[in-house]
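Just curious: can you write a single protein's sequence together with how it folds?
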Amino acid sequence: MKITIIDGQGGRIGRTVIEQLKERRPNLELYAVGTNSIATSAMLKAGAEYGATGENAAIVNAADSDIIIGPIGIVFANALLGEITPAIAAAVGASKAFKILIPTNRCNHFVAGCAEASMSEYIRLAIEKAESIIFPER
């Protein structure tokens, strides 16, 4: 199963997702895709086995991923202060992967029905969802 984590800016969300997945499931192979080298580096330092940077890396990895995890902005063109190109948003949106999107309130959008929670809580919920897909026997 190919699990891809996509993040931009400083890679804080992606780094935390990878740290928590690795803590709970150390044998998972994780792919880190950063929209910039700082984000990719942060995710690799957190324990991802593979890392790549940029638009083409996001497009290629979204195409054959089983699960994509990242901030909700990865499906919005020009989000993350412009780091998510229209091509990245389209590739993630068109991917057959199950998408686990972490809500943030910094990308000029509001997700109705999402409770106000801390980023830590959203990431915890994302990890639990990923585990339920990867290990459905739970």
The longest strand covers residues 3-7. The mean pLDDT is 93. The beta strands are 3-7, 30-34, 50-53, 67-71, 98-102.
